[in-house]
Design a protein that fits this description.
This protein is 40% helix and 8% strand. It has 372 residues and is an alpha+beta fold. It has two domains: 30-199, Elastase, domain 1 (Roll), CATH 3.10.170; 211-240 and 251-366, Neutral Protease, domain 2, CATH 1.10.390. Its EC number is 3.4.24.-. Extracellular zinc metalloprotease.
Length: 372
């Protein structure tokens, strides 16, 4: 596999009128920063912390209320009749307003932009497209060459990034706790993978199936970063959102797949609450049943399986996860044990009864999940 690829070149802004878009299909409103993190910041006495957090929470709650609890498959934009092996990317600028898509600032064939956020969004969309196509033979998010759209500079000090069922949307962050959300490529890969899930397993965004939905996005977000950098399992940092936290924050990232619960421990941000095993499973009514917290458990299972197999995580371990996500046997309300069992079945179907299946059985057992 060629890991010495020429980086995708982003593009220059060209201001053009944007045609009207039909309303997006009903889908889960998926954000990279979980509500519990923003809740903690909203309680701060410092206006620099609580102001952006409260506005972001209000925004996200409003948009979440407009979505149904279950993502649905649907056409999110015009797809070519014959899927291309090249991405079709368009970046828009919201101009610090809470509008989408915003003003079109570059297309696929444009040269690099002067705006770093535009360039990073362009490159992140390309890295995601490349991983799915070159490793798994998938043409874009829907498997049919869906054009990839993104909006940058969304809102004022908006502390999040999200997939809205049609496009990626990036806030600039408050520059006190969070930096620009286009910085980590795994954040872009994470959110776009919610779109892949939307078009495939369509996992319900609640409880364990919701935690699996979040975990699948973390898994492939991490793989997109590892693939882009040509990293082995030992070289990867296994962090989600590394580079997103401002320098004054005591933390490395939003989440750690290698060691859930250790990504940050900050006086303002609080401590990373993710459990690594079922012993720490959190029963809560918040965040659709703790989908961003309990996702640490399947995240850690993937890390354990991938490191046991060695080499590049996008190969055997990633292939098994992709087979389960797209194989048609994963129920919308699947629990951890259901997903675990399907990974073992998928490993045996693709690789036989060798080390892959054994690595999975051991990984799931270590996190306290029994494959049914």
């Amino acid at each position: 596999m060629d890991v010495n690829r020429t980086p995708v070149q982003p593009v220059t802004p060209q201001i053009a009128p944007v045609p009207p878009f039909p309303p997006p299909p009903t889908s889960v409103f998926c954000t990279i920063v979980p509500p519990h993190v923003l809740d903690k910041l909203a309680q701060s006495e410092d206006p620099a912390h609580h102001g952006p957090a409260r506005l972001t929470l209000e925004h996200d709650a409003l948009h979440r209320a407009r979505r149904s609890d279950t993502a649905v498959r649907g056409i999110t934009g015009p797809a070519p009749e014959t899927a291309s092996d090249k991405p079709h990317r368009t970046i828009y600028d919201a101009g610090h307003q809470q509008v989408v898509p915003g003003t079109k600032v570059h297309s696929e064939s444009d040269p690099p932009a002067k705006d770093a956020s535009v360039n990073r969004a362009q490159a992140g969309l390309g890295a995601t497209f490349e991983l799915y196509l070159k490793v798994y033979g998938r043409h874009s998010i829907d498997g049919k060459g869906l054009p990839l759209d993104a909006t940058v500079h969304y809102g004022e000090k908006y502390d999040n990034a999200f997939w809205d069922g049609r496009r990626m949307v990036f806030g600039d962050g408050d520059n006190t706790i969070f930096l620009d959300f286009t910085i980590p490529v795994d954040v872009i890969g994470h959110e776009l993978t919610h779109g892949v899930t939307q078009y495939t397993a369509n996992l319900e965004y609640s409880g364990q199936s919701g935690a699996l939905n979040e975990s699948v996005s973390d898994v492939f977000g991490s793989l997109i970063k590892q693939y882009a950098l040509g990293q082995s399992v030992g070289q990867a940092d296994w962090l989600i959102g590394e580079g997103l936290l401002a320098p004054q924050v005591t933390g490395k990232a939003l989440r750690s797949m290698k060691a859930p619960g250790t990504a940050y421990d900050d006086k303002t941000l609080g401590k990373d609450p993710q459990p690594a095993t079922m012993k720490g499973y959190v029963e809560t009514a918040s965040d659709n049943g703790g989908v961003h917290v309990n996702s640490g458990i399947p995240n850690h299972a993937f890390y354990l399986a991938a490191t046991a197999l060695g080499g590049h995580a996008w190969e055997r371990a990633g292939q098994i996860w992709y087979d389960v996500l797209t194989g048609g046997h994963l129920a919308k309300n699947a629990q951890f044990a259901d997903f675990a069992a399907l990974t073992v079945t998928a490993a045996r179907a693709r690789y036989g009864t060798g080390e892959e299946a054994e690595a999975l059985l051991k990984a799931w057992s270590t996190v306290g999940v029994t494959a049914k």
